[in-house]
Task: structure prediction
Amino acid sequence: MIIFNLNYKRLIATVLTVALVSCSNPWDDRENNGDANLTVNLTEAIKSTAETSQFAQLLSETGYDKILAASKTYTVFVPTDAAMAQVSDEILNDPEALKQFVGNHIALTAYSSERNEEETRIKMYSNKYLTFKGSTMIDDATIVTANQYAKNGVFHIIDKPLSPKLNIWEYIKSQQGASATSDYLLSLKDFNIYKSDSIGKALSEENGAGFLADSLTNSYLKNVYNLNNEAKSYTLFLMENDGYNQ
Result:
């Protein structure tokens, strides 16, 4: 019985040791991995990486270099120089679009590729949401070099740029004048169908809601489905004009 108890205790100790090792967090363990980048911030680490020099330049142009030098913790998905060739001149030559583009590669908090979740929705600095799939994909880009740690976060090198995509509401707005259904949904900004609609309009005007303004002022978004909210996923069947006008 004494031998049995001793072996049982050894077994429990072994299981606990394995559990503690397997549950360790790569971000918490980074200090022991000998990486020289742990003495520099993300801006410095990305600038010193040869294959990411073009994105590093855009960080400086948009002011994100200062953000990534701060004391908060970030994740950056950095396109290779070869991937940056895919970025359109329309984005590169428009300061507002460029800042939105760069922000679409940066998230608050450290996201290691060593994760238990199959998919994680991540809010980016662009106010867009991207899906981290498994350990190798962010949206439709593949991570070619993962878990490059700096003292204030982690960056992953990817093979495609993460250009911001239209959400459903943005797509509806892009169809104004060409789609009768879109025109109808957009027109609901001009009506106060519910009592709360007038309150939402007043708040938007008073506070300046920016990209969320439609969410407060359009009756459909405010009271039915907020298609401008990218934290949730929707499917919209947009009728062709012939079907809408019947």
